[in-house]
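FAQ: What does the model actually see?

It sees only this:
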Amino acid sequence: MKLIIRLLISTLAILVAANIIPGVQVVDTTTAIILAIVLGILNTFLKPVLQILALPITILTLGLFYLVINVFIIFFAEYLVQGFSVDGFIPALLFGFVVSIISGILGMFLE
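And it is asked to produce this:
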């Protein structure tokens, strides 16, 4: 049950972020649900591998390279999900921030 609620929270966060950030488009709610699933899968399996591979540059940049990894994950999700588009690095970065903040705040009520 918690998995479905987290999926709904992520979907809501994606829809809100797409509406407030210029340069990010999500066609409809179905696309947002698919995007939430894809981002969850990518963050579970691909992100840890990228973080390990990028550890030296992450240390050199004092952790700021994690933001670049997040943007890469968003661009990869854009490639995989039809109906989702991001117009550049800054909108992808802001999209990641907004989705994380909204999901975190709403997720606190889940516990």
